[in-house]
Amino acid sequence: MDAINLFLYLFLSVFTFYLVRGMAVAHLRRRKNRLPPGTLGLPFIGETLQLISAYKTENPEPFIDDRVSKYGNIFTTHVFGEPTVFSADPETNRFILQNEGRLFESSYPGSIQNLLGRYSLLLMRGTLHKRMHSLTMSFANSSILKDHLLADIDRLVRLNLDSWTGRVFLMDEAKKITFNLTVKQLMSFDPCEWTENLMKEYMLVIEGFFSIPLPIFSSTYRKAIQARTKVAEALGLVVRDRRKEREGGERKNDMLESLFEGDGAAGVEGGGFSDEEIVDFILALLVAGYETTSTIMTLAVKFLTETPHALSQLKCG
């Protein structure tokens, strides 16, 4: 048996083993936990490909609608590496949200946790989560943010508009504005080469959220993991530089400064925030409003353009 045939034989043997094992584990897991009706799809991959394909179209609802019609409002599937229960039932969703932290605990698939970082605000629990959440709300309601937020928005929007030449895609431009505004509020950076490079790597991280979470088979997820490392390194350097500036008495009015200020108030809880905690926290805030804010901006322009009367009222107001 030559080397190539030996490799193929070993590969098929291992693949067959994991295929059978995956099907057996999935079957036993469903019986043990009495999951709602549905299908776990292919081993490892599950129905991730179908979900990703639907997400990238203009009408992603059929992924859920087709399964609701077949299995009911609550069904089982397997996406992003983990068995998942989908609920399209309003009463069930309300019950889950009202009992979060008591009967239910929010979480994300392991593949997404790898991209967010273990100290992401979206993944934190307990005392650390309360501290980070409290600082976020304090900064959001502070006079520091209110005093310059609108001015920053106006300046960054005008700066973006001035860069337009020829045809543009509004959603892409809205994402640029959202990213630059968030970076400004978090770390006091105006658009520059550094922010452009950061956004390029950040976009690769975002793409990794909707990919098959197998680095060996998915170049998208592999690139996302690599980009996440680069983003963390870039943010970590900023954090270290800012700590040195603070030692020299320099202060800035941004979220990062609030996190440093939180260090001093955290003595009772065991010390200040580590660089890793701050980096993961900042990355989570970059992710949190990126898609939603840019989508709202795009839809606002769309609907105002389609409704001249509302647009004229807005101009008069």
TrEMBL record:
Q: Where in the cell is it found?
A: Membrane
List, separated by semicolons, the cofactors it needs. heme
| Source species, domain of life | Eukaryota
Gene3D superfamilies named in the record: Cytochrome P450
Q: Which InterPro entries match?
A: Cyt_P450, Cyt_P450_sf
The reply to whether Transmembrane helix figures as a keyword in the UniProt entry is yes
Membrane-spanning parts: 6-26
Question: Is the Membrane keyword given for this protein?
Answer: yes
Primary localization class, coarse: membrane
| A Pfam family reported for this protein in Swiss-Prot or TrEMBL | p450
Q: Which UniProt keywords apply?
A: Heme, Iron, Membrane, Metal-binding, Monooxygenase, Oxidoreductase, Transmembrane, Transmembrane helix
The UniProt entry's GO CC annotations, sorted and at most eight, read:
membrane
Membrane protein topology class: Single-pass membrane protein
Which GO molecular function annotation, any one, does this entry have?
oxidoreductase activity, acting on paired donors, with incorporation or reduction of molecular oxygen
Q: Which PANTHER family match?
A: 3BETA,22ALPHA-DIHYDROXYSTEROID 3-DEHYDROGENASE (PTHR24286:SF44), CYTOCHROME P450 26 (PTHR24286)
The family annotation for this protein states: Belongs to the cytochrome P450 family.
| Identification of the protein by name | Cytochrome P450
Gene name of the encoded protein: LOC102604556
